[in-house]
Amino acid sequence: MSTNIPIVENILNANDLLAGQIHDRLERAGVFSFNVMASPGGGKTSTILRTVRTLMGEFRVGVMDGDIVPIDLEELAKMGIPVSLINTGGNCHLDANMVIGALPTLDLNALDLLIIENVGNLVCPAAFKLGVDLNVVIASVPEGADKPYKYPTMFRGADVLLLNKMDLCEYQGFDLEYFKHGIEVLNPGVAFFPLSCRTGEGFDAWIDWLRAKIKTRSAATHVGQ
Amino acid sequence: MHELGITHSILNIAVKHAQQVGAIRIKELNLVIGEMSSIVDDSVQFYWEMVAQGTLAEGSTLNFRRVAGRLHCDGCGHEFAFNRQDFVCPQCQSPQIRIVGGEEFFLESIDVDFDPEKQRPVQP
Question: For the segment A141-179, what is each residue's pLDDT rounded down to a tens digit?
């Protein structure tokens, strides 16, 4: 006769513990961080490139990229910022273990902002916390307005949502109200910025919001020291 | 496709708890998986035998309790199944709804054997 032992432990506990360690290390170094998640082709790299270009005069930025090949990262490295490739070898997401292993490749004391580009996927990355300050989710107009309904976990876990390729709205017949309703149910009050990385439309609002977040962290770190 | 890693995590948690109570064998693992947690039980099952081999959990059975996604209407209080098409209350058509279930993903309990020759340790 076997005995039942109650446990109730989250399966992803081990990942979450490592994510907590990443968060502590970044916080101690005074680095603000965010994780960029989207489907392949949603605009992760374009958003990061434009964000870095806009903010690199104000903050010391570094980028970590979970990818199979370093093509995207080479684009970023051309701007003269520190970059680090986490070769995912075809894995479907980044997890805290991969990120913590890659942290020593960057000098955290020489950074104010760390951007982590996740694997292009709207399912798996949502489950794995990376210990960052913000989870940035990018949806894009050509993907269709039903994405929040199909991938609820991803949109539910976002701290900020960017809707990219707004310049294509008129060609796509994108139902913005339907999209926004899905978001409102899954993640009430989440910061939302419709924009276009190509034309720059709406980009300032995202940057202003992000800048304020980074400065709040930076002020808190200096008070703490 | 990340179920192999997930399967390892399940094993690690189960073995840790089994060792803590001094069990000699894990017979069953009772998992709770919400509809929205994107875990495919067939894939976990597929990896299980391989992953559990040579551990306290070798030959054990995985039991999955699936929890359906649930939505609650703040308009009329109606609770209904999560669907992936619209988030509107089927009873009163209110769009004021929120998720109340289906995000679970944890190991609820394990069924273990103790060595009959030894005195049963006190459970924590």
Answer: 999 999 999 999 999 999 999 999 999 998 999 999 999
**pTM confidence score:** 0.91
Closest residue in chain B to residue A1, using alpha carbons only: B113
Q: Chain A partners of B107 at a C-beta cutoff of 8 Å?
A: 7-9, 11
Cβ-based neighbours of A94, under 8 Å, separated by 6 or more: A35, A66, A86, A88, A116, A118, A119, A125, A128, A130
Domains and CATH numbers, chain A: 13-213 (3.40.50.300)
The domain defined by B3-68+102-113 folds into hypothetical protein PF0899 fold (3.30.2320)
Domain boundaries along the sequence of chain B: 3-68+102-113
Match 């990219």 to its residue by tokens. A164
Q: What is the ipTM of this complex?
A: 0.84
pLDDT in tens, A134-149: 999 999 999 999 999 9
Does B84 sit within 8 Å of A5, measured CB to CB?
A: no
